[in-house]
Amino acid sequence: MISDQPVAAARPNAAAATRRLKVVVPAVVVGIIQVGACTVAGRWQPDARPLDVWAYLLLVAGPAALLVVRRYPVPVLIATVAASFAYFSLGYPGGPAVLAAIVALVATVVAGQRLAAWLVGVVGIGGYLLGHALAGDAIAGPGVGALVGWTLVVLVGSEGVRIRRERIAEERRRAEEYGLRCATEERLRIARELHDVLGHHISLINVQAGVALHLMDGGGDPAQTREALTAIKRSSKEVLREMRTTLGVLRDADEAAPRGPVPGLGAIPDLVGRVREAGADVRLVDDGPFGEVGEQTGLAAYRIVQEALTNVRRHAPGAATVVSLRRTGSELHVTVVDDGVGAPAARAEDGAGRGIAGMTERAAALGGTLTAAPVPSGGFRVDAVLPVGAA
């Protein structure tokens, strides 16, 4: 078997080599420019001091210091400014000998050492003026103006780069937080869907299995036993279909995964019919037509009815239940009420209480409301108000 460890080990090495190149290449380029340009400038400035070993050492010292500017920005800035100051103070030919100092100045500001960068810039200009004053040279002239102007341009430009980087980092952080929030909301939505689908159908299967066992143990009518087993098969098939539909959102977007239809208002009569076939006393009061209803509203109404009926079978088996649907303006009203005594308090406190919380979250996600509470005369009532336009 071929091991992929060498490949995995090569990736960090390649990344490290890339990082080194990003440091070495700029330093080499700055060194070539400083040495080459100052050498050429010396031929056109006969009054300047000829370039010697010390001059070339000063021209190379700044670029060499840039190799560690990311790790030590402030010391490198001081070193490059000192090398440039020494070069010009010794009377060598004018040229871009300050290029390394400019690069270090930008790197220092971008690294967040703003105060140090401005202090070094001010001290550098002050030292330049002081040197000219001590030498008896005129300190007012175009050269001084250019020095001050370019220093300010570099500092302000560096601030702009720093601000832009910070903005990009902040936008990236917000994007990551948004992605995590969306992923969390999607996981909660999927968990809610699975809870509703599995809870309802497994409850039906449990009831029908109990009926089938009772008929088989008591020597009941084979036709009734077959009917119960057929209902189990139908519920099993339905739960598998709905699970495939729900879990389809976990597939990659480029997969051509077949997705089943999303259940909505039109599927509620079938839902009530299946529950009735399982032996429950349930009827549907449908005050339709409902007009245009958004897909998410239809799905939420279906799941709320599904979970409410599941809770009735779990807590008040045998209770008479009424499911009613009606539309008033831009709102869809969904009500499920049973007349069984059951255990009303337990409905909101035991493990099944997750279903009530899920129904409430589902309604709230669409901008609707849901209340679930015991009925004073006995039984339990679930009322949901959903906006019809939630697509």
What do these coordinates show?
By secondary structure, the chain is an alpha+beta fold. Among the domains are: 17-140, no CATH class; 263-391, 2-Layer Sandwich (Heat Shock Protein 90). Helices cover 65% and strands 9% of the residues. It has 11 helices and 5 strands; from the N terminus they run H-H-H-H-H-H-H-H-E-H-E-E-H-H-E-E. A 5-stranded mixed β-sheet has the order 1-2-3-5-4. Strand 1 (281-286), helix 9 and strand 2 form a beta-alpha-beta unit. Helix 6 crosses helix 9. The longest helix has 76 residues, at 142-217. 30% of the residues are buried.
SSE map:
Layout: H1 5-43, H2 53-65, H3 73-89, H4 99-110, H5 114-134, H6 142-217, H7 222-247, H8 268-277, E1 281-286, H9 295-315, E2 320-328, E3 331-338, H10 344-349, H11 353-365, E4 369-374, E5 380-387
Parallel strand pairs: 1-2
Antiparallel strand pairs: 2-3, 3-5, 4-5
Q: What is the 3D shape?
A: rod-shaped
Largest sheet: 5 strands, mixed
CATH topology of the domain at 263-391: Heat Shock Protein 90
Alpha-carbon distance between the termini?
A: 52 Å
